[in-house]
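One thing: can you check what follows?
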Amino acid sequence: MSNWLLPESLADILPAEARRIEELRRNLLDLYRTYGFELVAPPLVEYIDSLLSGTGGALNLRTCKLIDQLSGRTLGVRADITPQVSRIDAHLLNREGVTRLCYCGSVLHARPAGLLSDRELLQIGAEIFGHAGVEADIEILELALESVKRAGVSSARLDLNHPGVLRAIVDSDSALADSVDEISDLLSTKDVPALGSLALRLPDIKPVTVQALLSLASLYGGTEVIAKARETLPALPALRRALDDLEALIRALPTHEFSIDLADMGSGYGYHSGVVFSIYAEGWHDALVKGGRYDGVGKAFGRSRPATGFSLDLRKLSSGLPPAPVAMAIRAPWGTDVALVGALRALRDSGEIVVQVLPGQTHRLDEFTVDRELVLDNGAWKVRAIQ
């Protein structure tokens, strides 16, 4: 095996792309600061008990595990930073009222999420803790949309769902208690025949429940889906509240395009407690941003808190953007002359990129185009255009 080969679904990032990703990181973290979000930086590795607290089984399967040589306990390399931020809010900060936290760091998946997915992501996100109202969800949605806009993404489309719709149906029929995961998967794949056959496999299931699940599988499309859901689904109080939350978000963002898919549970049915959303855009094969409400995750750390937030992968975001533009640079000779050193310092202090040519060497630069040079003219160092 060649020494330069990397494991499957892992890749190096070369200079121009790495620079653009870093610029996106700085831009977005500065954006979150203007909204009042404070930056935190959790460790890459934690005890597995803490890392997976309150997150369900899906994250466990994505987490790489190893043994701590100091304690003998099992460690996990984080596959998602959100649970770590929840731990910081609940246990370390332990504040009253609203806390806004943001973060950016690498995460590692044991397996790629899809055929075109990487195993290492540069995850950036923002979370609001301490407010259970829809106002926090609106702020998070606005910030997520502004994030992709700042990156240069046009025509972003919002996809909304609320697991409370399915949860209300499940809670109304005890026959479904042991089949929630299966039903969630069947709804996500729109497997209507399998949903219709539930009455054969679950003899105690109510006919109205089967009909509600069949209706739920067809409830996707534009915002008119919410009105259709009110007409076709049972009039359960929790279900109505979930639809009310979706309508409140849509009214708060009247200039944006929405789609609704009440059957798409994804992998977060057991994790999310309120509105969930994804942002899609032309040029990316799947969702750019994912987020939603996940109240109570901090309970595992001794303090249950309302929470809502979002995250995205900066590497994926960058990969779908137009090629990064090159920067203009100045070529300068190598030397330690006091006047030359002073000229170099002055140029760099003013924001110019100055590349000194080492003796006997040529340079190939991916990020820069050298269009000027620093030359000695009548005893003074001057910048002139390269013809």
